[in-house]
Design goal:
- The protein has 467 residues and is of the alpha/beta class.
- It is built from 15 helices and eleven strands.
- α7 packs across α10.
- Bound molecules: adenosine-5'-triphosphate and magnesium ion (3 copies).
- Adenosine-5'-triphosphate (ATP) binds next to β3, β8, β9 and α5.
- Keywords: Aminoacyl-tRNA synthetase, ATP-binding, Coiled coil, Cytoplasm, Ligase, Metal-binding, Nucleotide-binding, Protein biosynthesis, RNA-binding, tRNA-binding, Zinc.
- One of its GO terms (cellular component) is cytosol.
- Its EC number is 6.1.1.7.
- One of its GO terms (molecular function) is aminoacyl-tRNA deacylase activity.
Length: 467
């Protein structure tokens, strides 16, 4: 059966409401009062303190559809967008939780029931993974649910260290964590990629759709774990990935919502090739940046605001690549609101402000973008395989090209960036500014103007490092 994105959301929440779960609204993309986390990267974020036992709720079972952003910190998919069929920066996560109530058995059985009996996914296309020594979850899959053992894969310390496995989920470097069991869907042999645990598992054939995390520990800064007050369940399923399956397509970018957004991006950029990766990037980035503005994040040169600026500028650069030389990106906001405004009323309410913030950032970057691209072209005209760090720094310092944007352009051309050289150039400028004295430094900042404002190395580091 065909399920629209709206059908999928409603069906999920109804299923868990019928099983005693309280339906909770999506929380903002900026987590309240949590320095360990840059953005809400999963549905459990608003329940972090409930897991830790320092907050209580009037319910022990909850379900939600959570707006998530993975563009910084521990879970960062920015570099995957435009390259895989399954990653977004902004996406919606369907989730259900038990706070010291049910555990592995109920969680996995309900997941199976919902997928195979309600959404009616063909059981023979589903695979599961469990944490290497989790015999309990393994037995639920093989003995109670009846999944053939060939399709239940134990995944362990494959990335070095006990807690670095794909099947040990962590919100951030510290905080709630635990072993998990993931459900995969096989899109079929026409799509490249191998089953979970195999060397080519990173393809788009076997796609991870649902993670069931058995929250049991609180990770400490020194890497040791403490048990949580009670074992909990935390699940997360990507709405767009499920939609792709239910709509019979192999890519998230071909679902109803993304087709419409990509058509809007083609309209505004004049692109004729609907399969252009740039259109996918623009469609992804309008969601991320519009929701960020709606949740109070405006472009700036540090922290969350700098991530916001980087995402917007990447989108603009892709528009430029498609031939745009004037602001276009903000014009996608009404299209987005038409698609998502009902589910996210705050986005609809903030739409005029969102457009204004995006338009202002576009105007600012268009002042320097073309010139910066020329400099880049000249620097690479001799067939270089690495862009000199000095050039990357000049692009950053004078033309407002965040380093990751320069990387993005170079990657398309199969060219690397001399990051050490970039950092050295940044250091040299800082030292010169220090030597010239504080007064002069302020004048430099002043003179450079907002588009070219100097971003200190520390800030850049901070933006890259905050989890
Ligand atoms: P992947 O291995 O595919 O990157 P993940 O293991 O990082 O996914 P989890 O942290 O387990 O993902 O999140 C739970 C679910 O959220 C995933 O099973 C997937 O369906 C969905 N999801 C995760 N990251 C993204 C993303 N960038 N875009 C869309 N959906 C995502
Ligand atoms: Mg991931
Ligand atoms: Mg994974
Ligand atoms: Mg996962």
């Amino acid at each position: 059966p065909f399920f629209s994105v709206a059908d999928i959301r409603r069906t999920f929440l109804d299923f868990f409401a019928q099983r005693g779960h309280t339906v909770v609204p999506s929380s903002p993309l900026v987590p309240g009062n949590d320095p360990t986390l840059m953005f809400t990267n999963s549905g459990m974020v608003q329940f972090k303190d409930v897991f830790l036992g320092t907050d209580r709720r009037p319910y022990v079972r909850a379900a939600s559809v959570q707006a998530c952003l993975r563009a910084g910190g521990k879970h960062n998919d920015l570099e995957n967008v435009g390259y895989t069929a399954r990653h977004h920066t902004f996406f919606e996560m369907l989730g259900n939780w038990s706070f010291g109530d049910y555990f592995k058995r109920e969680s996995l059985k309900w997941a199976w029931e919902l997928l195979t009996e309600v959404y009616k996914l063909p059981a023979e296309r589903l695979w599961a993974t469990v944490y290497i020594d989790d015999d309990e979850a393994y037995d639920v899959w093989t003995k109670e649910i009846g999944l053939p053992p060939e399709r239940v894969v134990r995944i362990g310390d494959n990335k070095g260290g006990k807690y670095q496995s794909d099947n040990f989920w962590m919100m951030a470097d510290t905080g709630p964590c635990g072993p998990c069991s993931e459900i995969f869907y096989d899109h079929g042999p026409e799509v490249p990629g191998g089953p979970p645990g195999s060397p080519d598992a990173d393809g788009d054939r076997y796609i991870e759709i649902w993670n069931n995390v058995f929250m049991q520990f609180d990770m400490q800064p020194d890497g040791s774990v403490r048990p949580l007050p009670a074992p909990c369940v935390d699940t997360g399923m990507g709405l767009e990935r499920l939609a792709a399956i239910l709509q019979g397509v192999h890519s998230n970018y071909e679902i109803d919502l993304f087709r419409t957004l990509i058509a809007a991006a083609a309209r505004e950029t004049g692109a004729s090739d609907r399969d252009s990766p740039s259109l996918r990037v623009i469609a992804d980035h309008i969601r991320a940046t519009a929701f960020l503005v709606a949740d109070g994040v405006i472009p700036s040169n540090e922290g969350r605001g700098y991530v916001q600026r980087r995402i917007i500028r990447r989108a603009i650069r892709h528009g430029y690549k498609l031939g745009r030389t004037a602001p276009f990106f903000h014009k996608l906001v009404p299209d987005l609101v038409a698609l998502m405004g009902e589910a996210y009323p705050n986005l609809a309410a903030q739409a005029p402000r969102v457009m204004e913030v995006l338009r202002a950032e576009e105007e600012r970057f268009y002042e320097t973008l073309a010139h910066g691209m020329e400099i880049l072209d000249v620097a690479l005209a001799g067939g270089q395989t690495v862009l000199p760090g000095e050039v990357a720094f000049k692009l950053h310092d004078t033309y407002g090209f965040p380093l990751d944007l320069t990387h993005d352009v170079c990657r398309e051309r199969g060219v690397g960036v001399d990051v050490a050289g970039f950092e050295a150039a940044m250091e040299r400028q800082k030292a010169q500014a220090r030597a010239a004295g504080k007064f002069k430094m302020e004048r430099v900042l002043d003179y450079a103007g907002p588009a070219n404002a100097f971003v200190g190395y520390d800030e850049l580091q901070a933006a890259a490092k905050v989890v």
